[in-house]
Structure formats: C-alpha cells, structure tokens
Design the sequence.
C-alpha cells in the first residue's frame, strides 16, 4: 500500500512543476512588455516638450526682429522756465483740521510723544523722585532690602504723585489741553499756558541756592526774578532740592531704628553673645515699633503735607 501512495505523490509533483514554470515565464513577459510601453510613453512626451520649446523660441525671435521703426530726428533742448513765486511768504504747514481743531494724526503723534517722554517727565517735574527715595530709605532703615519690592514702592510713589499733582494736572487740562483740542488755542500758546502751572509748582519747592547753583553752572546772568528762570535751569534745580529734602526725611527716619540697633548690640555684648548678629535680634523690634507708631501713615502724611502751598 505504501509504495502505491508514494508513486502517486511523485506523479502529482512532476505534473505541477511544468505548470508553475509556465506561469512564471508568462508573468515575466507581461512585466517586460509593460516596461517597454512605459518607456515609449516617456520618450513621446519628452519629444513633444522639446518640439513645443523649440516652437516658442522661434516665435519669440521672429517677433523681436519682425518690426522695424524709422529713426526719429533729435529734438533741441528747451531752456527751463523761470519759476513763479507762490502766493504768501513761503512754505507753511497747517496742523489743524478744517474746523480749527488739530487733526487726529497730530493728536496721535502728540500722544505717542508724551508716552515716550512720560518717564522722564515723571521723574524730573513731579514729586515722584522725593517720594520714592523716602520710601526706599525707610525700607533700608528697617533692614529689609527687598521687602516691600521695588514694584510696590514705585506703584505707591506713582499714585501719591498723582494725588499731589492733581491740582496742577487739572489746571493744565482745563486751560491748555482742552482749548487746544477744541481748536480755540494754537499749539505754541497751549505749550506756554500748560507749562505755567508746572513752573509754579517747581518754583514753590526749589531753593534759591539750587537755582543760583544751576545758573552759575550754565554760565548765565542772574534772572531778574524767580519767574524769569528758564525751564532748563529750573528742572535740575528742582530735582536737587527734592533729593535734599528726601535725604533729610530719610535721616529722621533712620534715627529711631539706629537707637534700637545700638541698644540690642549693647545688650548682646553684655551677655557675651558676640557671635550672634544684632540685626537678627533688632529686626522684630524695628517692625514692632514701626507698626505701633503707624509708620507708613506718618511717612505718607509727612510727604503730602510737605507739598502744601505749592
């Protein structure tokens, strides 16, 4: 039985091999014919593109050489005409609108300019410098170099400056800015009228010694009166006076905290604790004293009352 089965299997395998070989040969022939057709199509397309390019080049060259233009006789140069003067004295630029009020472009330009120079104006012509210096010296007297942070001190000084400068800013807005925006006042007149309240404020808080110092530094003649002082001399003199007043207030603030440091240092020395930093022991007593006497209220009240009458 087994020899018969093995013989049948051998016959089947011998019969399938020619069919498999025949199928593989037919598949390879079809692939070769497909590759030939693809190559033929590419050659035809390349030939068509080449023919089109050659035709375009020939048409362009023929069009460029086809038309001929007859030469034109040269024209003699013409002498320049004498310019006629325009009506009026010269060039003038009108920055106002049809109704006399400034145009929106001019208002925008002035606003951007004020925003760019606002920090300098805030530091030089207001009470901001004095208030910020006093607050910073108070923080140093408490031995707290970063508490409150600079942002808090700057914000408090800014709002106190706005509170103190409110009458001056209101006067400038009512008598200079609004009339200029309404078209009833020219730009030069608005600047002159608007600078008058600032001049009055700075003169009221500037010492004569500082005015004389800046006048001599600028090598100018002594002004006839305080109202005749120019802004270029008044602004630095005002800043020097503000710094002097701020340092005087800071010195008064330092005295009680200095007394606390001396007492604490003496106590530690008497107890033999020389290795213990006195600042660590005196800091709680400084904060306690500052809170009990309402230190922030006293300092802010002193700063505001120092500008009364200006």
Sequence:
């Amino acid at each position: 039985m087994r020899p018969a089965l093995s013989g049948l299997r051998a016959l089947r395998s011998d019969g399938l091999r020619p069919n498999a070989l025949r199928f593989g040969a037919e598949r390879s022939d079809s692939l070769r014919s497909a590759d030939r057709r693809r190559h033929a199509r590419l050659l035809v397309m390349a030939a068509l593109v080449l023919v089109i390019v050659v035709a375009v080049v020939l048409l362009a060259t023929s069009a460029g050489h086809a038309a001929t233009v007859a030469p034109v006789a040269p024209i003699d140069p013409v002498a320049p005409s004498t310019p006629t003067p325009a009506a009026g004295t010269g060039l003038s630029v009108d920055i106002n609108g049809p109704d006399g009020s400034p145009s929106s472009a001019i208002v925008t330009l002035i606003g951007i300019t004020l925003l760019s120079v606002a920090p300098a104006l805030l530091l030089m012509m207001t009470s901001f410098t004095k208030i910020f210096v006093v607050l910073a010296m108070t923080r140093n007297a408490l031995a707290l170099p970063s508490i409150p942070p600079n942002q808090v001190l700057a914000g408090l000084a800014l709002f106190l400056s706005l509170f103190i400068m409110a009458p001056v800013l209101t006067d400038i807005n009512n008598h200079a800015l609004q009339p200029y925006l309404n078209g009833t006042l020219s730009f030069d007149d608005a600047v002159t009228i608007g600078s008058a309240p600032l001049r009055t404020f700075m003169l009221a808080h500037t010492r004569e010694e500082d005015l004389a110092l800046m006048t001599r530094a600028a090598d100018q003649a002594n002004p006839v009166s305080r109202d005749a002082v120019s802004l270029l001399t008044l602004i630095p003199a005002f800043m020097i006076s503000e710094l002097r007043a701020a340092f005087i207030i800071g010195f008064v603030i330092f005295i009680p905290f200095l007394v606390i440091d001396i007492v604490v240092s003496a106590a530690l020395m008497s107890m033999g604790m020389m290795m213990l930093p006195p600042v660590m022991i005196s800091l709680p007593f400084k904060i306690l004293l500052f809170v009990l006497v309402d230190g922030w209220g006293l300092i802010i009240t002193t700063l505001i009352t120092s500008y009364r009458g200006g």
Residues 1-51 form one domain. The chain is about 75% helix and 0% strand. Confidence is low (pLDDT under 50) at residues 1-5, 10-16. The chain has two domains: 1-51, 119-305.
